[in-house]
Every structure is written in C-alpha cells, then in structure tokens.
Amino acid sequence: MLIRNSLLLMLCLLITLDFLLAADSDNNQTNQKVEIVRVIKPGVFDLQTESYLVRMRAWGVEFPQRGQPGFQEAITFTEQSLLSTNPKIEIKQEFDIQNMKVVDITHSKNGLNFSREAITQGFGWHLEKETNRFGPFLLAQLKAKRLNSGIWANNFNYRQIESPTAMPKPSFPGMMNRMNNFVPTLSYWETSFGKIHRPGCSFYQRGRGKLTSKPQGIDCRICGGRKAK
Fold this sequence. Notes:
Helix content is 33%, strand content 21%. It is of the alpha+beta class. A 5-stranded mixed beta sheet has the order 1-2-3-6-5, with helices on one face. The termini are far apart.
C-alpha cells in the first residue's frame, strides 16, 4: 500500500512538472516577438527576428525617391502600414542586387497585401518585370491610373531617374570622352613623288608613300585627290 501511494505521488509530480515546463515554453514563444522595427525608405524596412535584424524590400512595387513628388506620402504610408507589426512574409527572392530580401507582405489582422495597397492608392507603381505582370497588381495600377490617385496626379516622369533596384552600369570616362570627341577624317595616300590619291583610287596605297589627312602634293588626275571627281 505504501509503495502504491509513493508511485501515485511520483506520477502526480511528473505530470505537474511537465505542465509547468510546457507553460513556460509557451510563455517564451509568446515573448519572442518578430516584428518590423524600422522603415528605411518607402517599401524598405528592417525586420527583427529572434537572432537577426534583416533588411527587406517589398516585392513588385517601386516608390518615388527622396526629393521627388509623392516621396513623403509614400514613406508615411509605409510607416503606418508596417511599423511595429508582425505581418505574414513570403520570400520572393533571397537577395536582390542591393543585398536585400525581396518579400511579399500580407497583414496578419486584415489580410491586406502591402504592395497591392500601395499600388491601388497611388503611393507607388507596379514593377511588372519583377512580378512577371502579376494580375492583381496590374488591375490595382489600372484602377489607380483611372482615378488619378497619388503619383498619377503628379505631372512628373518618375522613370527619367534610374530605378534604385536596377543593376548599376559601369562607366569608363576616358573611353566615353574619346568616343564623344571622335571625328571621322579621310586619309589620303601621298606618294613619295608627291601625288595625292583618295580611297578607291587604283593607286591608293600603291608603291612608296604615306597616309595623311593633310596632304601637300599634287592631286591625282584620275580620282581627283583632295577634290573628289
């Protein structure tokens, strides 16, 4: 009888201990918050995970840059929509050319898609190449254009400035300057006897002579030399 009571007591203690450990584990999971802690610019933000701070960019939408019409409205929309939230995030691209994760963002509470809302309200425009012309985003932009919403009411060519998501283009100043300053010139063949022949003449580059753009001799009677016939 004593042994039986002892076994029952031990069993009760084990069950209680398991319950307490499970409750503590649930509390830890609840306290481990994953949320957006900082907005860098429209559509770009930092997500704080358990161990890392990850910089992300909203998929399929681009916004005005600083100094362009609509920038302030776009960054305000991003802050109000994302700051201190824990949305559902789907990774579309591990890293873009600026080393940011490209993600599709859906609000946990209302189920709204961040990129689609930004396009619908005219805070940004659809990156068709990035989404492969994703239908809902196309329709959202058509609606925004029809209603003249946000950026579509501004008389400003946003695409005149290169996209910040585009691949940087290498520049070769020396080569470009040489190309811009290059002026084609005609090279004449001046023989050792002082006769001048132009390209196409049967005597061009025949015998002894030199190529020059400023010949000083006598023009060929056949081709005309400096004066084409």
